[in-house]
Amino acid sequence: MTKVDIFLLAYILLMTTTGTRACKAGEVLDPTLKKCISCKICEEFPNSVICKSCRTSAFAGSEQKLFDDLFRNYNRKVRPVWDWRTAVDVNLTMQITQIVDMDERNQILTTNVWIEQHWIDEKLTWDPVEYDGITILRVPAVELWIPDITLYDNADTHDYAVSVRASSCLVEHHGYVSLWSRPTVLKSTCKIDIKYFPFDKQICRLKFGSWTYTGEQINLDKHSEKPDLSNLVENEQWDLQFAMTTRHSVSYQCCPDNYHDVTFIVGLQRKPLYYIYNLIMPCVLLSALSLLGFFMPYDVGVVKVSLSVTLILSLTVFLLLVAEMMPRSSEVIPLIGQYYAATMFLISLSTAMNVAVLNVNERGSVSGKAVPYWIRIIVLKYLACIVLMTHCSKQKPPKTPNPCARRKPENGNHNSKFYVNKESRENRRHCRLDNNSYQPEQEFLLEDCSDRSMDGSGDRKLLKLEKTVDLILKHLKTVQKKKEQFMMIRQEWSYVAAVLDRLMLTLFVICTAATSMVLLLHRQGDLIYEDPYNNFTIVDNEKYKPNYGVNDT
Question: What is the pTM of this model?
Fold first, then answer.
């Protein structure tokens, strides 16, 4: 034996006689001697047998020794209490870092969060003096008992508990355990109210609770009044209006015991600029284009109707885009859907108006019937005054005397076809030059005939010729009169159509403006959440609004 081995043997015998039973930090227990030997001797004798034991032992350091002492008889499958009737107090809170997405069609809210849990583990306590002043020990979460907190509203196959197990716990010397999960993405179900889309506000909840432990085994409570929003990243489509935390104790139908849960309530408001620019503005422009149909001339005919049909097809395409964004719900129709439906109805109504006006305009050309008296009174007298197409004076315009009217002879010879007044003759010459009547031509013909000598045979021929010419002139006058009457009837029907067209335009503009103002300016009120368990109402007041950049804990 060397001198070193003799010295170590003497040291072991000395430690045996001291009667020391518990090994302190930095000591190893010799299984043969049942005594603790300090590893400090390795500084002087690094190649000794004891130093090899110190290097290979699990207690080579205060932290390792503390870990081994704590978990030597520790069972992570049972609750960390000495009395089984004692409940484990668990405090839960959450830090929201980002509102990732809101899937309205599938009604799923995606958030990026940190989950924070705190509880007392009665079996993980130690005296820091015995372990070189160690007060906090970081232990992997898989090595100790953790509460089975689950997201009840989970909409994903990936459970956030996986990220919790992958993290580490901070264990303090008095048994207080703190567990922060790694940043994880949660997908939770959220009831979407699409009535006011795209000016809507939504309330979503994230309900956390133990899946198997009752309230008598785990006393779950909230750690703060609202989630931590100090590191919140703003979303491009949603504004976070408020966030708060509530606690419930609920008894379910399946189980008679009470189960505790902590619910995080989040109020969101949509940013509507994207939808205004891409969905509402095109609809407004298409509504404005439908006004052009009222200003188009009646000669174009079917083009007025085809314009409205094209606009309806365009609105149908945009309505399909809106339907792809919304969930398939029969409970309520969103505002933008109502606006598109109302616009399509108004454009269809304008199409019917244009067809009716075209029918009225062509009524004079097709039927040739005069405008009925009641239409003349209602349309040409009252409606024309309302739409400002004529003056509203009740006095009728005076009739202008016709200088070409045929005068009666002064001598009373009314039956003579050859009587011609000299004064009227000059007037009729003047009328002939003005082309206002066909009567002067007949008078001139009779005048020439009256200057001739009338013998027997000449009188008969002249009378026959006069009758023939008179019949021709009467026929021409009748044809011209019918033509003028036809033109007057057609113009009168056209005027009726113009008045109706102006009236339809006015009604269309009023209905379009009223519909746009009622539907597009209608806004949702304050967010109100009625708690189904505690019978109280939560409004988005200043107390629960986020304070960006301020730590809420």
Answer: 0.66
